[in-house]
Specification:
The protein has about 230 residues and is mainly α. The chain contains 10 helices and no strands. The longest helix is centred in the N-terminal third of the chain and has 28 residues. The N and C termini lie far apart (about 140 Å). About 5% of the residues have low confidence.
């Protein structure tokens, strides 16, 4: 039917996502091998790995085509949010009212206002403002701010930023993991010798008892050339 616009690409991605876990189970089971070429393990691994790569690659290519064709229509999105006449924001209202009234009373007050909205008589901001409990706690401007979905994004901004972030193809060297090519001596591993570790010099105890003094040394000491002349002599 040419007039239909079914989300075919999203359906293909969802179908592939259901196949890959089963293929991964076969690959994990093939890791159990009793030898380098176990009987049956690598025979089951080869076609399964081929199917897994083909499925994941097809899903990635389909996702590229899907995102390239997306069209954002803010007016239609706003109309969908307003279809419930504000009741899509009841969870936020309960969270904002709990510190003021307690969780039980906050849920009961929002439920009463929601019943009036469901009957089609008023919208949610009007029902909350006319409530006997909430009307005294919240101003009209505060109520309309709480029921406005454009100010309630939750973690959508952080999730979008993370999805659009691309890894750096060339991050460069890591200064933490790159060691210094010439670190030099390690003062911790090569400590300076301490005075306590050096051996003390032995005192001069003179010649050994069993050795006679050197006669030549005494003769040289008594020689005239070794004698100092008297002061004033020519």
């Amino acid at each position: 039917m040419p007039h239909k616009a079914n989300p075919a690409r999203a359906t293909m991605i969802a179908g592939g996502a259901r196949r890959v876990p089963a293929l991964a189970g076969v690959l994990y089971a093939s890791l159990v091998a009793e030898d380098e070429r176990p009987a049956g393990a690598w025979h089951a691994e080869w076609p399964t790995l081929r199917d897994a790569l083909r499925t994941v690659g097809g899903m990635a290519a389909t996702a590229v085509e899907l995102t390239a064709g997306l069209r954002v229509r803010p007016e239609r999105m706003r109309a969908n949010l307003g279809a419930t006449r504000g009741q899509v924001m009841t969870e936020r209202l309960v969270a904002a009212l709990t510190p003021l009234t307690g969780r039980a009373e906050a849920r009961a007050a929002v439920a009463r206002a929601g019943e009036r909205v469901a009957r089609g008589t008023v919208d949610l901001p009007t029902a909350l403002g006319e409530d006997l409990v909430l009307g005294r706690l919240l101003t009209t401007d505060r109520i309309r701010t709480l029921v406005d979905p454009s100010g309630y994004h939750g973690s959508a901004g952080a999730l979008v930023d993370r999805a659009l972030r691309r890894p750096d193809p060339d991050p460069g060297p890591d200064p933490v993991s790159e060691p210094d090519p010439d670190p030099g001596p390690d003062p911790v591993r090569e400590p300076a010798p301490s005075p306590e570790s050096e051996p003390a010099p032995e005192p001069d105890q003179g010649p050994e008892p069993d050795q006679a003094p050197d006669a030549d040394a005494h003769a040289e000491a008594d020689a005239p050339e070794h004698r100092r002349p008297a002061q004033g002599a020519p």
